């Protein structure tokens, strides 16, 4: 909907920022945005309005629509008045083509497309219900005009067509939403919104928008709205986007009953059995599918599974009905073959379905073309002409797809592919699973991602270590050795592209589950891509196949999540303060799984999302995450760089985005020769390494004695708050790590020890500001020595038991090494405490 024309004032190169003031590039500031936080801040002085706002917090479209109508009622007094004046006015109603604004249900039916009719009807009903809520809540805050349904629908349409959707958040960005949409002409595959994210960076302070194409001076500046079909653009934006491979047309696959030709009794039994299988996997009988001009399916997995079930005979469907899991009924080798090389039966099914869909339309392509050629006054008003344009575009896609399928069908017939198969379920697994093949496939995948800089070679080291990265050329400290395109990473944003992830996260929030939103989004993302129903379609499959395998007991994983209950690892850890954190970590993850399992109890996903797999996903996320912009990311290849401290001067690992925001850049933290293993210094103490990574370093200048202390109940009141802040204690169970070479840390330990042993005495001694500069009091030293001696005694007693049996288990050996290191640190701290005056 080209209401505005934005021209570039100076030459614009791809990836430069759009917005320019006085020759300097600027970003859009967050306080100009419209989202819940900024609206709450704007209305903070109006308690009654804030109460209304809180009731709409869970529905962002309703929230933003209400905000616009309330602020528009203020006229010039509204802070956003200049922005509202720039938006299309209510008088432009007839120029918008969205079915949301159609005058009648008959106009919606004129779309002739089942998917669009269903979506449009649902959106119209949602909008009317939202309007009723708006009138009830905001009647006294807006003008009578703004209470009308038509005005509400128009404003909701503006929100739908202009708001950015980033990481599950809907945001109105003044001036940022002024650019008209047009595909950039780049031929590429659907990438779950990653391409859009490269050029739209939402941060804590605002948003940066970058050019996604070259634009000459004086020409209109367009941007790519994302990899969406016209089902999205037509309904929510009010226009038809030119197709660059992401559009598709809906058609309905034949019902199960059409496949069976035997007597009526047998037919009922077999069709009922197939229907039960469909119910288990949440697929409808005769489901809707969507196909592009080139014959590519929007959801090939769904069509592949349905085609397999459709063609099963009575014996096969009986076996499938009693299968305990989805993978027994539809084994990976079956889905792999159906998705990569659709055979005779699947192509035939699709081709017949597309033909029937074209014949089913009430009007032909020729009829619709004739209607659109007529003068405006000849065509019925109220959106009918817009509906004709949409349905014509669907028919043209199906016509082209039919021609492609017919050609494929002829090729399959000539080649005899799957044509004579009587047992489509019993297919051979053709993909090798050995380590060398997995590595080769991953390397091929990396090569296709076009890393701007990659000076690494991946090699297998051992079962305990896994893979390592080696320099393909000499690297100097501070030199870029790996630049990873952001779109290759698994992120919160890519997680949100999954309907299942979004729905599951929403259900968890509704259930009141106490889980970290961003962490759970990434966990669900990893689980679905690795183990889910569409795992063989995953764009990250070559990367996920490289991650440590989950064997029967997780014995090849170092994470404490896989320590056996009452097993040797936990026994070996006894006496160490780290035991408290390990127990809490294991309990926290299992609690999160219980919450997730409760949500998925009646779902087919419950069959593949097991507790062991959930533990595996947590172990992967906690041991491999790369951080930037205060968020976790799983970054292929970069997360395979192992941890090691080569010298006390070895700089800590740091990854940041380049100036374009499109690449995660990592510089060498040391000098490496060609063929050297490239390593990074994570700069963490060994208790963190053992807790989240499952290893310890022999040489680690960041290591220290770990103390897990509990603040006594008598110190948990307001009187002690300043003291706790000074000690940097922010919870009733505090973890502190003390290096014997850090005199300030030892002094802090002394004070903390006194607080734990005698809170009143600590309050008396430390309430005076001068206490921080005086020498340690005898009570402090005595309390600290007691704290240290308790731990030394525990470790030394349990050490004798831990060392009594020989083992080659790398997890147990890591724990033993950690215990010995802790004893050494504690002895050094004890000596320093005794030396204090």
UniProtKB/TrEMBL annotation:
Query: Which superkingdom does the taxonomy of this entry point to?
Result: Eukaryota
User: Rubisco LSMT substrate-binding domain spans which residues?
Assistant: 296-398
Q: Name one GO molecular function term.
A: protein-lysine N-methyltransferase activity
Q: Name one Pfam family in it.
A: Rubis-subs-bind
Methyltransferase as a keyword of this entry, yes or no, is: yes
Q: Which InterPro entries match?
A: Rubisco_LSMT_subst-bd, Rubisco_LSMT_subst-bd_sf, SET_dom_sf, SETD3_SETD6_MTase
Q: Which UniProt keywords apply?
A: Methyltransferase, S-adenosyl-L-methionine, Transferase
Which protein are we looking at?
Answer: Unnamed protein product
Which source organism? Phytophthora fragariaefolia
